[in-house]
Amino acid sequence: MSIVKNIWGGWVNITYFLFARVSILLLLIIGFYWTVVVFANLQEDTTSITNTAFAITATLTALSFSCARAITGSTEVSDQFTYSGERFFHGALILLSASLLKYAYLSAQSSEFVNTSGVAWNILSSVIGVMVGVFFFWALSSAHGGLLVLNNLLWTRYSRHPKWDDLM
Question: What are the boundaries of each domain within the chain?
């Protein structure tokens, strides 16, 4: 029976490493990829990417703040949930700002009232492109910080019960 317990304990450690560490790193890499896609395609409408990112970030914001309110016994844990929600919320606001800036750029570019062939437009286009890229990277960084805190906190919370990993 102790061999089974040792194997199960090893499995739990591997699972913890994969889900608590590797998964967060993979999500960061995926987020970085989509940020580069948005940044590299300033001329194209990438609203579907930004809307999806905003929906995910806003949902995680609401869930984190809800958990913070639900925790009554520990102000430290409640504060960590609140901190995570604040990071997600900040990321969502930055995503909105970047998305609005890109939308304004695309609208101005397709407008007949804006001269898009001049030097001033080329300079403005470069500045807006850099700003949009920086905003998306900043939003990714903020949301990733919230995800790190939230993931570690949830692993700690549900492993506080002695039989959390029992199959039967």
Answer: 2-158
Average the pLDDT over 80-104 and give the result: 93
Distance CA 166, CA 168 (A): 6
Backbone angles phi, psi at 45, to 5 degrees: -80, 110
The whole-number pLDDT of residue 88 equals 95
pLDDT at residue 110 tops 70: yes
Rounded CA gap, 140 and 53, in Å? 9
**What residue has token string 């925790």?**
71
Three-state DSSP at 71 gives coil
- The mean pLDDT of 21-47, rounded to a whole number, is 80
Give the alpha-carbon dihedral of 137, 140, 145, 147, to 10 degrees: -170
Is 49 buried (19+), middle (13-18) or exposed (0-12) by CB count in 10 A?
Answer: middle
DSSP secondary structure of 107-154? HHHH-TTS-TTSHHHHHHHHHHHHHHHHHHHHHHHHHHHHHHHHHHHH
CA distance 90 to 84: 10
Closest among 158, 137, 157 to 31, alpha carbons compared: 137
Give CA–CA dist 168/159, Å, rounded.
16
Q: How far apart are CA 166 and CA 41, in angstroms?
A: 49
